[in-house]
Write a structure and sequence with these properties.
By secondary structure, the protein is of the alpha/beta class. The strands form two sheets. A seven-stranded mixed sheet has the order 3-2-1-4-5-9-8, sandwiched between helices. The structure holds S-adenosylmethionine (SAM).
């Protein structure tokens, strides 16, 4: 009996905490606070599996940038940059250019500044701001490249933000935008036996799929391509990030967690994940869209 009651009591307590949060901060503010709290705890540079996925993003991003801007020295925006997991290597690539990282989590930006100093990349600048606010005040055609990874999934009105990203890109600019895959949310909810969440994931593209205060969004590759083309982007290509693996808590962690592998195994996994990233783009933890204006 005790065993049966324990999960129920846990659920009731977490529901009560959630309701108290809504009463205290209002729903919108509570969602923002929850995102910021997670961003503060989960350091994207030092968390065990995140550097592996940074490697996957950079594999695609740097090869495209090398192709498009062989002389480097460009203007790059990393929107929702966290602790600078991608901003710092991008600044190292772009030595005679500028990279600006923007995030609304103050602690993440402070950490990013510290990491960039340690890495000696003075051309990386960091700013605390809300992405939609930053985008609205940014002049048109001001960036050669916009990186927007693992943020859209938690951004209310993400289509409006994507419209602005398109506006602030130069005419020969590139954007790298990642979206939560629908497949990931289906695996996650089914593993939890959260069939209401799974039905939501199957039929919609946004919602409170995991309960809690944050409204998430998710897509298939077809939906990503359709959305970006509707907003004026061209030449969109999708690649799956983490098609056979995951961080702690992800559904695919039982297949492989990069940080639990030897260096050789990690490199084998990485080769397979990049080789098959196009074929299985819909199965990624995220879908990376590489697109032009
Ligand atoms: C999963 S992390 C990704 C960080 C980074 N893009 C990367 O790939 O390493 C998500 C980040 O988005 C930031 N974020 C979420 N919503 C935001 C918003 N409205 N404005 C600015 N930053 C936001 C969070 O603070 C967090 O640092």
């Amino acid at each position: 009996m005790k065993k049966l009651l324990r999960p129920l009591v846990g659920k009731v307590i977490s529901r009560l905490i959630h309701l108290c949060g809504i009463i205290r901060y209002g729903e919108k503010d509570l969602a923002k606070r929850n995102i910021q709290r997670t961003a503060n705890i989960h350091d994207m540079v030092t968390s065990p599996d995140e550097p592996y996925y940074a490697g996957q993003y950079l594999h695609w991003i740097l090869s495209k940038l090398d192709e498009q801007f062989p002389d480097r020295g460009i203007n790059i925006l990393d929107l929702g940059c966290g602790q600078g997991r991608l901003t710092i290597p991008l600044a190292a690539w772009n030595r005679n250019g500028r990279v600006i990282g923007v995030d609304f989590t103050k602690e993440a930006i402070e950490t990013a500044r510290r990491y960039s100093e340690e890495k000696g990349v003075p051309n990386a600048e960091f700013l605390v701001d809300d992405a939609p606010h930053f985008l609205e005040k940014t002049p048109s055609e001001s960036y050669d490249c916009v990186v927007f990874t693992e943020v859209v999934l938690m951004l209310p009105q993400y289509d409006k933000a994507l419209q602005h990203v398109h506006r602030i890109m130069k005419s020969d600019g590139l954007a790298f935008i990642s979206f939560r895959s629908k497949y990931f949310n289906l695996l996650h909810t089914i593993r939890e036996r959260n069939f209401a969440g799974a039905r939501l994931a199957a039929t919609q593209q946004t919602g409170k799929v995991f309960g809690g205060a944050v409204t998430f969004s998710w897509q298939t590759t077809n939906e990503v391509v359709e959305l970006l083309s509707r907003l004026g982007y061209r030449n969109t290509m999708c690649r799956g990030i983490g098609i056979f693996s995951g961080i702690e808590g992800d559904p695919l962690e039982t297949i492989a967690r990069p940080s639990l592998l030897s260096e050789k195994q990690q490199s084998e996994l990485s080769d397979l994940e990049t080789q098959l990233a196009e074929t299985y783009a819909d199965c990624g933890r995220y879908i990376l869209a590489m697109t032009t204006k």
